[in-house]
Design a protein that fits this description.
single chain, 281 residues, alpha/beta, TIM Barrel, 10 helices, 43% helix
Amino acid sequence: MLQTPPEPLAAPVIDTHCHLDIRDGDRHPGATADPDDLLAAASAVGVQGVVQIGCDVESARWSVQIAQSRPWVVAGVALHPNEAPRLHAEEGRPALQAAWAAISELARDPKVRAIGETGLDYFRTDESGREVQHESFRWHIALAKELGKPLVIHDREAHDDVIKIVEEEGQPDTVVFHCFSGDAQMARYCAAKGWYMSFAGVVTFKNAQGLRDALREVPDELVLVETDAPYLTPVPFRGKANGSYLMPYTVRAMAEVRQVSEQSMAQTLQANAISVFGPFG
């Protein structure tokens, strides 16, 4: 079941990170909507394209298939930072290597516009899995550089090590911090490196003042917006299933923080999304 949609945006935007394939009604009540219904609802409020992210081999294949069959969908593929150590621990190194090979093959499809989400997650993966997590991150960086595609980073409670590894490996031409969670100082550092920072519904949360402070530090040319749907649902629907159609709440909050008009904010976000991920439609 979808929530009551917001008023349409003053100008179109692109959701640069979502998971149309995750429809777990137990964990996310109401998250069982059909992907095409979600895409139609998004289009009705001015979201004119989405980047569908696959986080394991199965979801990466699904992501490529939906991108191939829907003109306003493009894909990103990777092994999520928590998936690589899980696979290694449960099925062994051959399984991990086979998964990397599958991701590499899928990543060459022209509708795959990014390598990610990859990176480090110290919240869900403990120290026993971090060596594999680091190795997988480095592997994905190499793939992004080989294919000349943007690197989409998942960084959860691992800021210093994420930055260290990117700098050690040598950054791809385009780097995106998905669901940016750093502070203002980190935003300034990323800006100096030319890294994009993408903001989700967390920016609407009452307890997220530090994130709003960071948002103010991001140059116009490096700011992106996403939903990470069905996660990180913006206020006023926090705690319910997210969808790209709820993005106007986040865009309007970002415009308020940056003290610009809704139309100007949307136009900046749209131009940056196309710059990173290429044309949609």
